[in-house]
Each structure stands twice: as C-alpha cells, then as structure tokens.
Design goal:
The chain contains ten helices and five strands, in the order E-H-E-H-H-H-H-H-E-H-E-H-H-E-H. The protein has about 220 residues and is an alpha/beta fold. Helix 1 crosses helix 10 and helix 2 crosses helix 6.
Amino acid sequence: MIKIVTVEREYGCGGSEIAQRLAQLLGWKLWDHQLTEEIARLANCSQAAVEQREERTDPLYYRLFKSFLRGSYEGSINAHKLNLVDSENILKMTERVVQHAAGKGEAVIVGRGSQLFLKDRTDTFRVFLYAPRENKVRRLLSRGKSEREAWELVDTVDRERAGFIEKYFHVAWPDRAVYHVMINTAVGDETVVQTIQNFMKSFDSKISNSNVSAP
C-alpha cells in the first residue's frame, strides 16, 4: 500500500501548490518548507542558508574557499569547528529528514532528491511534474515576479537541479525510469491532483493483486 508520495518538479510548474493540495485531500503531512525548516534545525543555521544550498551544487568560489579554509593552518587545528553549510552537508541532512518522514508514512515529500532516496521502497509513489516554459513563466508572473526574472528563473533553477542530481546521484534529471507518472501541469492543478490520485489507486490495486496471486 502506498504510504509516501514524492513530487519532483520543474521550477514554476506549480509543484508545491499541487503537492499541498494532494496532501490536504489525502489527509497526509506535507514535507516541503517544513523539510527545509528541519534541515536548518539539524544544521544549526538559518532557513535562508539552507535554501541557498538545497538542490544545487556549491559554486566554484565557495568550493575554493572551503578547500582553502580546511587546508589552512587555522582550519586544520579547528577542523572540528568548521560547520560549513555546503551542499554535501545539506544533502546528508536532507536524506536523514526524508528517511524519517518516509518512516512515519502518510507523507507527501517535495523534491530534494526524495524520489531517489526512496526509489527502492515499494510503498512510495513517485511523480514528476513539468510544463511548457510559457506556462511556467505565466505562473511566476502571477506570483509577482517580473517578466525578466521569470524567464531567467525558469532556465537557471532547473539547470541547478539537474546539476545537483547528476553530481550526487549520478543520473540524468529527470531520470524517467524512477517515476511512476510524469504529468504536464498545463492541464490544470486540480486535474493533475485527480490524475495522481487515480494512478495511486491503480498502483495500490496492482500491488494488492500481486500479493494475492503470489504463492
């Protein structure tokens, strides 16, 4: 039986809103911004610092700074005190929080590599959401973004997410084989939510039939 839904998404396609609506209808816990809050608590840093490193690799200047700091005399004698908020540390904490959420069940988890952390769980239903660029830009404009900012974010955020997945999980983004369903959100948020629920029911039915027919 499905106990977890992971929602990976292209930036601007409405993934967070759709995940929130799905969680409300299922009566499950939504792990989106709360996931960031929990990571920040574990890292003992601000949410803003986590948001700057989530689902992306560290920029070159930051990697160089980190290498220099850890290689310096002061860094070597205080290595245990160097609690840098970098992508690798955020990734480790993210896995802890995702696995904790999955262990409790009845969870809708948004992005952060959750679909790959949980890809071997048979009680997890994995969704990928996408949309045409024009639709994503229109959605961002409705949120108050300028047209220039919207076009730029649509391109850059997904490049960062792809780089993050490729570096840390060694697969292409999106890794189509890992998802149970991929949906174009241009059909409308409510239609997407209903489609996900329909697929979940079919998936649960398939699992139940498999268990019954198994010797």
